[in-house]
Amino acid sequence: MASVFPNLTHRELTLADKLRGIRWDLIALITAIACIGFALLYSAANGNLYPWSERQMVRFALAFVPMVAVALIDIRYWFRAAYWIYGISLALIVAVDLRGIVGMGAQRWINLGVIELQPSEIMKIALVLALARYFHSRSGDEIRRFSTIFAPGLLIAVPVGLVLKQPDLGTAVMLVANGAALMFLAGIRLWIFAAGAAAAAAVAPLGWSMLRGYQKARLHTFLDPNTDPLGAGYHILQSKIALGSGGLFGKGFLMGTQTHLSFLPEKQTDFIFTILAEEFGLVGGLTLLALYMVVTGYGFAIALRSRSHFGRLLGLGLATNFFLYAFINTAMVIGLLPVVGVPLPLISYGGTAMVTVMLGFGLLMNVSIHRDVRISRLGESQVG
Amino acid sequence: MARETQRQKLLTRRAALIAGGQALLCAALVGRLYELQVVEKDRYTVLSNENRINLRLLVPPRGRIFDRFNVALADNHQNYRVVIVPEQTSSLAATLDALGTLIALTDADHRRVLREARFRHPFIPVEVRNNLSWDEMARIEVAIPELPGVSIEQGLLRYYPFGANASHVLGYVAAVSDKDLNGDPLLELPDFRIGKAGIEKSQDLKLRGTAGTSQVEINAYGRVVRELARVEGQPGEDVVASLDMATQNFAMQRCAAHQSVSSVVLDAATGDVLALVSSPSFDPMLFSTGLSQAVWHQLSTDPRHPLTNKATAGLYPPGSTFKPMTAMAALESGAITADTVINCPGYLKLGDATFHCWRKGGHGPLRVHDAIEQSCDVFFYETARRTGIDRIAAMARRFGFGRPLGLDIPGERGGLIPTREWKLAATGRPWEPGETLIAGIGQGSVLVTPLQLTTMVARLVTGRAVVPHLVRANGLMPEGGDPDPPVFARLGVSGEALEIVIGGMEAVVNNPHGTAYAERITDPDFAMGGKSGTSQVRRITEYEREHGLLKPQDVPWKDREHALFVAFAPISAPRYVCGVVVEHGGGGSDVAAPLVRDILYEVQQRDPGRRLPQPQKVAQQSPGTSPPAPPARPSPG
Questions:
Q1: Residue B334 lies in a domain
Q2: Pick from A230, A261, A316: which is nearest to B123 by CB?
Q3: B170 and B262 co-located in one domain
């Protein structure tokens, strides 16, 4: 048996096994999406590599190293480190609140000397790790108990509260959505979700009163962009004109008059989808969405092939996280969701989001490489 | 294992549900994109292309600057200029050449336009030339059909009615430079000007106002079809400067008699800067309209530094005008009293070194009052030696020296009050006792600005930490003076010490032995007290000690002494203070004191701290109330 199915033997994976397990098809997809990003950043700078495109290329190339490193480290190590990573991310968020530098009006960055780190981005992955580990160690009976929701609920609520204080509505929404998805996947009973949704609706007015002025303005704007076309609604209106005038095939690369015409600040970051949709039209937009869906689908396929519950939850959580980035950003740009700060993954200009997304893919490949590694309920190693 | 299988089954089922949910969400995205880009394409294309909606920023008119009596110092004038929208031309360079046949364009203009076009959005008009004459405008208007992208715009030009007279206070506005761009589209507009110096800079955000927007429909050729909506911006707020422009003009005109002068007039009660002169000056309009290379070169290489505000950024050894500080430190610390007598034989020996008095034969025995009156150097050498540099430095800092006073325009410098720590840190060598003596008469490393000197006098006569300011928080001056003038903290020095020093300064001008008796104001209601100073720029050589000083005209201008004079008036209730520094002017009492006398007489006549001006009277004022100056005599230190 051992000689026929070498991957199923009761032995540890060698480095060569692991390198063979790297999903080159996934890497090709990621690179394709990133290349679309480089082109859009080139266009955003009126046809210049400087200042955004070239730096983004360097970041993408550099992010490959930690991605592969993360993929090769044994999955049981990640299992054991899951809570630690979560704890450190949480501590970093607190640190940002205490002494973070103020960027873009919100306290979100912490300067590590080499790079400016946005711990709330790291938390998106840390939360998936922590929840995957938690549910891995719960039996089916335990999961059916109502009390089982408290610990994961707290794991989600604490960083969400901190992130809301910063204030970073986008990250908070992503953490809640991804956390709820993982609880759902883990088998938490459906009526609890229904009750949760009802409770959320009940406290919504309270939440409204806690929002910052500009956040309220964005929500008002979302509900009726025409009320203030020159103020808060300006972004969304300009963005819609850019999209609409792009039509089916777009105006052509570097020809997006509207994108350049409208004074869209941050067009290289959160609103970069408008450039794609204006210059390449519906076809361009759908192509990118299709690529995102394919990548998400890969993530699901990888996750479901894993033999450990931890691996499955981790893979599904990471894939969902990636999907949420893409969905929330696109939806807000085309006016389906209020404007919250979520970047378009692999495309928007920015360092931490790029690193986080790439680390996420590293972990996803890790799940793929270690799909046959079993992990006991308490995390002791077990192969086979 | 069965449980494990069950758990996996549940997970797979729920994963499928999640995937389905994601597919639905994605379908919503696709549907919305389809709606926008296919169903509503025509509508948005119309909005975008053929009749695209363009949001134009309406430049807010810049706030004006007035003096305390509502005289406009900086205003806005109509101005016509020619602009090019780069994306509407087939070739920017060719269009520029064609324009060059109609109006005069320099090579520098060419290069600037091409450079600006590269750094800005191609739809943003780039200014080619400003300030067009009617003639030039007509020539361009006729040719406009052959010049796509070229248009004439009307705008506001910053105008300074008093030209160069207050340019160092007001500053100037100029085109936004690349390093000023911060993403605010207002700053990218071609006719936008921001403050680059003086009040224009320090109050820029207030003067700037906020942009309005105009939503206009534009046809395929970029012409405005109609305006759809308009939100008026907020015009910039007006600013009231503390200046009294009549006093400023007078001081400026009076100072123009010398090569390089700075002068400050303060209302000691309120800290209002009534006049601030740095002469020669420059025409701020030069920066509004764009400066030619030649003019710029001339201004920036002139040894008299017309672009520098010497009143706030010029650093000079204060010379004898610093002696009140040495006296204050000595009196306050008990090193001397009002009755301490020190003999001046004309020199003082300390170790191997000999320190000379400006009067070769010496002053004989003196008390502090007489020493200030006659500006005896030996008295202050000895007093400084007894007091010590640390106490003198501490006193000087209390009176505003050694660091910027915080005047509300940029560029103010702090000067230098040397201390032991400073010397060690700056040179690595310990403090020499002789340096205390030199510092005690305001020479050596001591460096001050004319503003600091003037503020020192304001603090001496009020006993309070007067802080000068150029922008009036209370707005225009009401009749009868400010109802709630700023209250400055007490300096915490004894009233007796202040009285002794002020008494000495009164004697400087009003006692026949005083160094500036010749320049006194004879009208008793307006009499002033003051202190002269002549600060060395180079060492006096032994040869000169032997054979007498060289005559000023025999010394190169750059090596001549600085003439300083600071004064307050009226003696009965000091209100106005004035300081003058004539760079390389010669003796303080001969050269600087007459300027101070005339300015203080003028400002007291006007009394801008209390009264609204009465123009018919002011126009006939002449300063000629003091007797003619006696023949030149040795210049007191």
A1: yes
A2: A261
A3: no
